[in-house]
Specification:
mainly alpha; 19 helices; 11% strand; binds glutamic acid
């Protein structure tokens, strides 16, 4: 049987998407795909802004990164202005809308009067029913909203919602610059794209009655509405695009895996599923729009981090490598060609929370590594020279590259320099071999570096930083 469920994700490219936007995209995708329906991507870019292109391109990148592929072409509202204008003309002709020539001054006065009276500011319908038409005077187009009665709709999460028409005024559907407004374009597009289920944030609940009224006036079929409860930060503040902490760009840059983010967002729906999904297709079978909870959710960044730690070790190696590569390219990181990269990754994986941790570890195996100049000062001394020289001479003659021989020489080294604290000797080794004061098991790192690179590094450090001590 043909199923016609069509959902959409309709972001405005006014900034980088935040985690709440991604939840909307995910739930819309899951609901459509669960029902063999379509998931449409519509970029709501009528508010012409010079950053539109940058942000909308990033939206596409993010959806691809997450694996939330869309069906059909991408719709850009900025390409559809003529379509909206035709419908506005139709509405003007059919008395469903009217031109309003009220000046800003007049509107401000009405506003002030309302505020003084303690009532919600709204337009006083001065131009309604006057059929005004002047040339060369700027105007807006207003929707002729019903003056009486209620708008009642059933939200799948919030249940029955009632608004009184009296509360809504004749809102603007076309600005004086000729550009149609959000509430109008959404209706035209949701109808044109045959959207059956509108899934969006709770912050849009107030727009829904306006949109329903336009749907009715144009005799369009009204979709079903699902408003997702708002997401709060730990201080119970609404998250926004302006806060970089919740920005998807931050998660991508730091090396989260999409699967961790998607699992966390599914968990936020509180569907009572205690299961970690390995891919988005598995999620769609259990996703149930009708069981989502209504109360707001609190974002717990630590939980995402722990999920990421879990997934780093539990996704397929191919998946991990794919996002490892994404990370390297995104951050312009250059890793030397390593023929034991897999071995290095599998060593560091259980200790990593983010791809960033894995990559930072891999950087130790580049031919040239970074040494902090302040730490150089700290470790530039005769002990360092003697320790490095000793180890160099021992390892140089090592024939079998095996951890037990490396362990053996490190033990010998500790004995030889037993007038120094073991901890200090280790710090010297960690620093000159890896550029960092603390790293996991240095013996294992030496093994992974392999003999040639290990000897090269020691020689390099002695020549560059410890040459004053050469006798
Ligand atoms: N463009 C709106 C936004 O980014 C969404 C509109 C909608 O889903 O109806 O919040």
């Amino acid at each position: 049987m043909k199923n016609n469920i069509i959902t959409r994700f309709a972001p405005s490219p006014t900034g980088y998407l935040h985690i709440g936007n991604i939840r909307i995209a995910l739930y819309s995708w899951l609901y459509a795909k669960k029902n063999n329906g379509k998931f449409i991507l519509r970029i709501e870019d009528t508010n012409l802004n010079k950053f539109n292109k940058k942000y909308s391109d990033y939206i596409l990148y993010v959806l691809e990164w997450l694996g939330l592929y869309w069906d059909d072409e991408i719709y850009y509202q900025s390409d559809r202005i003529d379509i909206y204008k035709d419908i506005i003309n139709y509405m003007l002709f059919n008395n469903l809308a009217y031109k309003c020539f009220c000046s800003i001054n007049r509107l401000n006065k009405i506003r002030k009067i309302c505020i003084k009276k303690g009532i919600k500011p709204k337009y006083d319908n001065f131009c309604r029913d006057k059929n005004l038409n002047y040339n060369n005077i700027p105007y807006v187009v207003r929707f002729k909203n019903s003056l009486y009665g209620n708008i009642v709709f059933k939200d799948i999460i919030f249940n029955k919602i009632i608004f009184n028409n009296y509360e809504l005024d004749d809102f603007i559907i076309q600005r004086s610059n000729g550009i149609p407004t959000y509430n109008f374009c959404v209706v035209v597009d949701d109808n044109y794209m045959s959207i059956t289920h509108v899934i969006r944030g709770e912050d849009h609940i107030n727009n829904t009655p306006k949109q329903i009224n336009i749907f009715k006036s144009l005799n369009y079929k009204i979709p079903k509405y699902i408003h997702l409860p708002i997401i709060l930060d730990l201080n119970k503040k609404k998250i926004s695009k302006k806060n970089f902490l919740f920005n998807i760009k931050k998660y991508i840059n730091e090396g989260y895996l999409p699967i961790s983010i998607l699992n966390y967002l599914l968990f936020l729906g509180r569907l009572n599923i205690n299961y970690k999904f390995n891919n988005i297709n598995e999620m769609k079978y259990i996703f149930n729009l009708f069981k989502l909870k209504k109360s707001s959710c609190i974002l717990n960044m630590k939980k995402i981090l722990f999920l990421n730690k879990y997934y780093l070790s539990n996704v397929s190696y191919n998946y991990l490598k794919l996002y490892f590569k994404y990370y390297i390219i995104n951050n312009n990181i250059i890793l030397d060609y390593l023929n034991n990269l897999d071995e290095i990754i599998s060593f560091i994986l259980p200790r990593s929370y983010l791809i960033k941790d894995i990559v930072n570890f891999c950087l130790i195996f580049n031919k040239y590594i970074y040494f902090d100049s302040l730490l150089i000062i700290k470790y530039k001394n005769n002990y360092s020279y003697l320790i490095l020289l000793y180890l160099y001479n021992k390892i140089k003659n090592l024939f079998f590259w095996d951890i037990k021989y490396i362990d053996f020489y490190i033990k010998k080294l500790l004995k030889k320099f037993n007038y120094l604290k073991i901890k200090y000797i280790y710090k010297i080794l960690h620093f000159f071999i890896t550029g960092k004061e603390i790293t996991p098991n240095i013996n294992k790192i030496i093994l992974l570096l392999k003999k040639k690179k290990f000897l090269f590094r020691i020689k390099y450090c002695i020549k560059k930083y410890l040459f004053n001590f050469i006798k």
